[in-house]
Amino acid sequence: MDKNNIFTGVKAAFKGLDDKLAKDIKILEISELSPIADYFIIASGSNPNQIKAMADSVEEELHKAGFPLKHSEGMQTGSWVLLDFGDIIVHLFNDEDRDFYSLERIWGDAKEISSNDLK
Fold it and tell me: What is the fold of 3-118?
């Protein structure tokens, strides 16, 4: 898939998260660092119900944009949900697990995309 289509998916994922009041949304472009995906999107929710709602919203928005969900993990616990759309991987955390796993630090060399770039 070309970069413009993938970025359309990133915008759709951001919309899905923003619609459900996700906290601290970070978009990391990892295409030059890893072959696993082009983007990681990381966000936090206040409780398992909000995290599940965020996941459902992201899945719906990305499906509409032509990105079917390939794999998901963590929906049962609601503390760390991973949604794999191929070129876009979405990580949804509660605050404690997000601090513990610190993906932003691990992927510190990635380029962060500002929410202003999504408009």
Answer: Beta Polymerase; domain 2 (3.30.460)
Residue type at 42 in one-letter notation: I
Token pair recorded at residue 60 = 């719906």
Each domain of the chain, given as residue ranges in start order, spans: 3-118
Q: Distance between CA 10 and CA 119 in Å, rounded?
A: 11
Q: Which helix (H) or strand (E) holds 9?
A: helix 3-19
* pTM for the structure as a whole: 0.94
Q: What per-residue confidence (pLDDT) applies to 119?
A: 65
Q: What is the rounded distance in angstroms from the CA atom of residue 76 to the CA atom of residue 94?
A: 13
Q: What ranges make up the beta strands (E) of the chain?
A: 23-29, 39-44, 71-73, 80-84, 88-93, 111-113
